[in-house]
Amino acid sequence: MQRVNRPLVLLAVAAAIVPLAGCGTLGGGRTQADTRYVARDVNTLYNAAWERLQRGNYPVAAALFDEVERQHPYSVWARRAQLMSAFSYYAAGDHTKSTEAARRFLSIHPGNRDAPYALYLIALNYYEQISDVTRDQAVTRQALDALGELVRRYPATRYAADARLKIDLVRDHLAGKEMEIGRFYQRRNQWLASVIRFRSVVEEYQTTSHAPEALMRLTESYLALGMPQEAARSAAVLGANYPGTRWYQRAYELVQRNAPQQTAAATPAGGTH
Fold first, then answer.
1. Residue 94: other Cβ atoms inside 10 A
2. Residue 194 burial (C-beta neighbours within 10 Å; 0-12, 13-18, 19+)
């Protein structure tokens, strides 16, 4: 699956967040790494976090932003620190804490103008944890749900525009998982189980790149089950929608060889062989 270009994502996220920081950076070249357990006024504490963020010390920045909220929960900076904490954890690669911080922001400030960005961060955290199709895809479905929620709730935002692109990639990935399982069943001659998987691709992920192969695999499985009419129907759908593909050529040849009486049905209207 195509991965996020992380430097570009971080740049876009940082650009979205920077306007929240109204304080100047910490002066005097102070370098104390950890001020989490020292009581400080809100400006000093927020600026210390902002300075660590600018230096790329994301874990410390996140912890300091958390301290802003903990020590000064009623300050205007507490709300901003919540979102900055979510971004800092994201930049540090701590997807769990980033998601928790973003969800906390949304629960406390659901109508805030930065709510779309918080939801976008949640979606990114799931998206960047997507594993290859040989592994469990629970997090992939969480990414799809979060991206879909972003598009539904905030369709006109720039975050929704990026989410739509990622939704296509995630759906293609999920279809690839179904194909992996379907082929696994085929190798073990478990044809009915393979049909279920390939049909799910055709019915749920018909716009993905896996649809042509799924139709061809359905043709194979139906023939193995002794269902030539269903095999011919799958081949015909394949020919009608993907006539120039190697998958259709293979499906047509399979029907012609194993169920010649169904060959006409496997040829789409106007098709020639």
1. 17
2. buried
Q: What is the pLDDT of residues 37-61, one digit of tens each?
A: 566 788 888 999 999 999 999 999 9
Q: How far is CA 197 from CA 191, 194, 201, 213, 248, in A?
A: 10, 5, 7, 12, 19
The CA-based angle 84-90-92, given to 5 degrees, is 105
The DSSP symbol for 189 reads T
Beta carbons of 198 and 179 less than 8 angstroms apart: yes
Q: Are 201 and 211 spatial neighbours (Cβ–Cβ below 8 Å)? A: yes
Predicted confidence (pLDDT) per residue in 77-127, tens digit? 888 999 999 999 999 999 999 999 999 999 999 999 999 999 999 999 999
Q: Which value, in Å, is the radius of gyration of the alpha carbons in the chain? A: 26
* Contact yes or no for 83/99 (Cβ under 8 A): no
